[in-house]
Amino acid sequence: MELNYGPEYDDFRAEVRHFCETEGKKTKSGALRMGENRPSQAAIDWQGQLIEAGYTARTIPKEYGGYGGTADIVKSLIIQEEFVASGTRSGIQNQGISMLVPTLLEVGTEEQKLKYIKPTINGEMIWAQGYSEPGSGSDLASLKTKGVVEGDNFVINGQKIWTSSAQYADMCFILVRTEPEAPKHHGISYLLMDMKTTGIDIKPLVTMTGDAFFNEMFISDVKVPVTSIVGQRGEGWRVANVTLKYERGMIGNPGMSAMGIRGVADLMEEETISGIRAMDMPVYRDRLLKLQGRSLANKYHGLRLLSNEINKEGMGVEGLIVKLSATYLSHEIYSLAVDVMGEFGTLYDGSAYQRQKDWMRQYLGSFMGIIGGGTSQIQKNVISERGLGLPREPLVKLDQNGWELIKK
Ligand SMILES: Cc1cc2nc3c(=O)[nH]c(=O)nc-3n(C[C@H](O)[C@H](O)[C@H](O)COP(=O)(O)OP(=O)(O)OC[C@H]3O[C@@H](n4cnc5c(N)ncnc54)[C@H](O)[C@@H]3O)c2cc1C
Asked: Domain ranges in the chain?
């Protein structure tokens, strides 16, 4: 069996490796950590260098600020492998770049693409996602924030919650109910809201990692131009699902677990328990190997999806499983790291006794992926109902008399 990629790809790998060894060395390794603020100027400069070299925004057309390359799965794989192997900082990943930009490319107007994609992929325009509301998280389509047309604007009133980055975002893609009489999935519109508009009040919420990176967002009489709609009025649920598809892809990005595995493997090489390297202890080594196997499976699964996308074959059930599998995997990777560190694993940022990096923070943070973007329970529902065609779960209502079956 011939496992080489061929001379064209060998040359490409050499080029990427050289870039990582020379340019990559000059920059701080790792991705922007959740909870960190807007990308620094250094991160924005690095992003520019990556776009110019074609190592991020690779297939985004030049007129929208991307590299303008053609899709090539093997090259994407090589870039990912070399960046992970050398610990080179990857491009910026955020809700704008990873979720809104591909949504606009798929369903946005030409004007929206020209206006928003370039500053977003450069890391200069930050987006928040205004989906969840109190009482409308898993049952997102029940959202109540209203958008009423007055003249050339939608006037928005309501409340969003868990809105990541809202405290420093420039823009927000927001779901509002514009047709209150329509069935719940049909009365929603998807708007692009400028966060500097009068009437937006942001209140931070602190997670168990101690970071306040998400927020409550109160919206009172906020005016958004009617031209800021993505897709048709009342058809925002379809657009919202396009974004959710890319959100699953972002959270399920196999490169993240590969980075995590690499970090834990390094840790196990360095840490000793009673004089024995953790890497030489079967109990830890076995766990690492199993996780490595799953990480590789995710990586090749990711390539299968990329191939489907390039060949316009659609994602099917394969696309629905990535978030579920990757978030459990990350959780187990960081559990292993905490276990390897023993009692030191429980220490948190700022402890005088903390060794190694912030494994406990990573471990606690891994729960966020399991909940954000639709919980694992909801992912299982989506996979079974939309992916495998199993019967829909019965609709139930909870009141003071207990659960009542509404629809089978
Ligand atoms: C780190 C993080 C970042 C986030 N960022 C954003 C953001 O930027 N923008 C945004 O809009 N939202 C954001 N969210 C919100 C996220 O999408 C919701 O938390 C999630 O969809 C769950 O909704 P909920 O919190 O209202 O929980 P609920 O819907 O109240 O669910 C509570 C529990 O019940 C379970 N459950 C509910 N319905 C079912 C069902 N039908 N079958 C089985 N189990 C069920 C859930 O799995 C969960 O365990 C973020 C969340 C987190 C954790």
From this structure: 7-93, 127-235, 252-395
CB 47 within 8 A of CB 102: no
Q: Each residue of 209-228: pLDDT tens digit?
A: 888 889 999 999 999 999 99
Beta carbon of 375 within 6 Å of any ligand 1 atom = yes
Residues 6+ apart with CB under 8 A from 227: 111, 152
**pTM exceeds 0.85, yes or no:** yes
* Partners of residue 192 on adjacent β-strands: 173
Here the tokens at position 386 are 């939309």
Stretch 224-250: mean pLDDT = 95
252-395 in CATH: which number? 1.20.140.10
pLDDT digits (tens, 9 = 90+) for 334-359: 999 999 998 888 888 888 887 777 89
Is 131 a pocket residue for ligand 1 (Cβ < 6 Å)?
Answer: yes
Give me ligand 1 centre to Cα 367, in Å: 12
Å from CA of 324 to ligand 1 middle: 14
Collapsing DSSP to helix, strand or coil, 60 comes out as coil
Query: Of 143, 162, 327, which is best to mutate to test ligand 1, by the most ligand atoms within 8 angstroms of its C-beta?
Result: 162
Q: Active-site positions?
A: 247
Residue 94 in contact with ligand 1 by CB distance below 6 A: no
The half-sphere exposure of 364 on its side-chain side, counting CA atoms within 13 A, is 16
Q: Considering the domain 127-235 in this protein, what is its CATH number?
A: 2.40.110.10
